Amino acid sequence: MDTRETLLDTLREQLDLVGAKKGCDHGQCGACTVLVDGRRVKSCLTLTVTLDDREITTVEGLAEGDTPHPLQAAFIEHDAFQCGYCTPGQLCSAAGMLAEVRAGWPSAVTADLNATPRLDDDEIRERMSGNLCRCGAYVNIVTAIGEVAR
Predict the structure, then answer these.
(1) How far are the Cα atoms of 50, 62, 118 from residue 78, in angstroms, in the given order?
(2) Tens of pLDDT along 10-38?
(3) d(CA 62, CA 67)
(4) How far apart are the first and last CA of the chain?
(5) At what angle do helices 87-102 and 70-77 cross, to 10 degrees?
(6) The whole model's pTM is what?
(7) Which long-range contacts (CB under 8 A, 24 or more apart) does 67-73 make?
(8) What is the pLDDT of residues 45-104, one digit of tens each?
(9) In what residue span(s) does the 2Fe-2S ferredoxin-type domain sit (predicted)?
């Protein structure tokens, strides 16, 4: 294995897990977002060699068998995707973001840093700002995430 290989390339080219997409290859679009030990990472910027004994979850691993993850079901219900290219990264990022909120992590728009964050639309937009959608499905993405959060 090449020690310079990114997690994104390992997932796609070695493991045939093609959910995470190569968008910008600079960590700016979020299409490659996956979870490492439950935390969001841009797989195009993460070297595979640094991930020994770490739990990696891609969009392929979000569902429980044939039962979609609640975020996947909400994205379908609220038409929170158009072309679908960014959707795997959006879903992984949303799953990681919900875990951050449950852990009480504030964001740049959290009004009271001592209170449990309230996941309103502004919080969702801020926390998902690292994931771009070229089709502009943001309104439906925020709605889908908000439904699952509540």
Answers:
(1) 37, 18, 21
(2) 999 999 999 999 999 999 999 999 999 99
(3) 9
(4) 43
(5) 120
(6) 0.95
(7) 69/95, 70/148, 71/95, 71/98, 71/144, 71/145, 71/148
(8) 999 999 999 999 999 999 999 999 999 999 999 999 999 999 999 999 999 999 999 999
(9) 1-62
